## 1
Amino acid sequence: MSKEDQLRWNQRFADGAYQGRTHPSDLLAQHQNLLQSLTYDNNAHALDIACGLGRNSAYLLKHGFNVTAVDISDVALSAFRKAYGDSSQLSIVAHDLDQGLPELDRQFDVILKIRFLSEPLLRTLRKHLKPKGLLIVEVLMQTEENQTAGPKASRFRIAPGGLREALAELNILHYHEGTVTDPDGKVSVVAQAIAQRCE
Ligand SMILES: C[S@@+](CC[C@H](N)C(=O)[O-])C[C@H]1O[C@@H](n2cnc3c(N)ncnc32)[C@H](O)[C@@H]1O
């Protein structure tokens, strides 16, 4: 990502983008039962890739995870830090994910990648999961429909079947391609998956 793109994201957040989206991703909230089994010893670690304002990180913190949250937008991250920065369970990292993940000194029980598409990055995530760790992904999907939220350009949307193919080395526990209605009423066409590292 160029400096220009970073400035574009900063401008979007400075203009108030996503401020109304305080609810966690439905995909995450609806599978809370899967998360519960991971937090029994208070030592579970989650990685939130492209965390934005941190709505999903906040949900994971509330449910007992230590969270490492990564994003390129310092405007989004400073708003997130202001709201949650005091938590000793939270580590916020400013980083360009087009360069891959930042240096990480651990594997994770959960990796979250919600509404941020980078297929090359997606294919590297297995090694960052602990055995039995979960990868939770939701990305916009290419569609002929016009009345859906989000950018229309196909480079921001995965092809049908593309997510399943990218996760071929993981055990898929949940998979859905199609429309979802967010709690704010917006309809999006997405591919979503919850996949587990087997060993
Ligand atoms: C649609 S928002 C989703 C935010 C969050 N995952 C959520 O569900 O609320 C996409 C996020 O990706 C971040 N982003 C875009 N390109 C990035 C890059 N190259 N490296 C890191 N973050 C990036 C943006 O700053 C923005 O916060």
## 2
Amino acid sequence: MKAIVLRRPGQVPAFSYEDLPDPQCKEGEIRILVKAAAVNRGEVQRRAGTVGGSWSPTSADPPKPAIVGWDVAGVIDRVGKNVNQNLIGQRVVALLVERGGYAEMAVVPSEFAIPIPAHMTFNEAASLPVAFLTSWYGLVRHAGLHAGEVVLIQAGTSGIGVAGIQIAKDLSAIVIATAGTDDKTEFCKKLGADYVINYTKEDFLDGVKDITNNRGVNVALDCVGGETLKNSIASLSHGGRIVTVGNVSQSHHPTIALDILFKIRPRFASESLLTEPDLPSALSNIVQLVAHGRIKAVIDKTFHLSRADEAHNYIEQRQHKGKVILTP
Ligand SMILES: NC(=O)c1ccc[n+]([C@@H]2O[C@H](COP(=O)([O-])OP(=O)(O)OC[C@H]3O[C@@H](n4cnc5c(N)ncnc54)[C@H](OP(=O)(O)O)[C@@H]3O)[C@@H](O)[C@H]2O)c1
């Protein structure tokens, strides 16, 4: 099969497009002929070597060649021992906990491959797992967001943000989103955000105070980190819930004054998607929400698999709104 291989982390171009042996199923696994793979910021950061332990260029361990990519959709073409043969030919989406998505084939434990309806495209399906699961666990499971509450979604056009806005609206919450350009603020409004703050023009903390009559938000979902995370906490109402899921700004963790914490008494949750329980059933739930039109996949751009470097560069330049997809 053809695959995108990362031999050493660094700036783009960092990938090579190579011929590798076809992966084989072990017991309990299925093999997917990949039709679409999504690109996530976490993969961009690992490719760059800015996060990822032994993948860091400064790590003492020599980096191991790797195929990155957590999200794929395609057709099952092989099954391992103790897996139902009737699954062959089924259209599925899968979360690859062990990575390997930037390739023509991927192998995964059978329970992580979720059937998709006939009307859902492979590109749509591949865009769902990491982004929508992260926002769903964050808002629903960790924050317990409910109807009528006000939620702040940072980076509204990010993969996490696009999912977060929609999941929050599906729960009948009131959404305040942030974005860095007017084009992106318009995009968030069309997606359903009730209020959008262009944080390059207006201090979002002031904006939140205005919108909420100084009460603050009940919940904040923050994937930006650094000073933004500090202000996400400061934007909470008394007893509000902050869910921190990422540090796209690559900032040092902020120092938060105790008087803010005593005044707000926030509840914290920090999420690491791949360690969440019940991932297959949660992904199945997301597929159903999309299938029933309650939320939708948002795809910005598609690149051929061989152009993974360009796809990563496009995301690093912050040009995307929603998901970027690779197709073999
Ligand atoms: N905890 C988990 O399990 C988990 C799961 C998924 C993702 N994540 C993390 O969540 C973060 C977001 O992922 P994603 O795939 O949704 O990101 P993404 O689609 O690449 O979007 C990131 C957006 O963040 C905004 N941003 C604000 N400050 C930024 C800065 N200093 N540098 C770059 N972008 C900045 C940009 O929008 P504007 O131009 O509007 O500012 C950018 O488009 C990443 O750190 C990722 O690793 C964590």
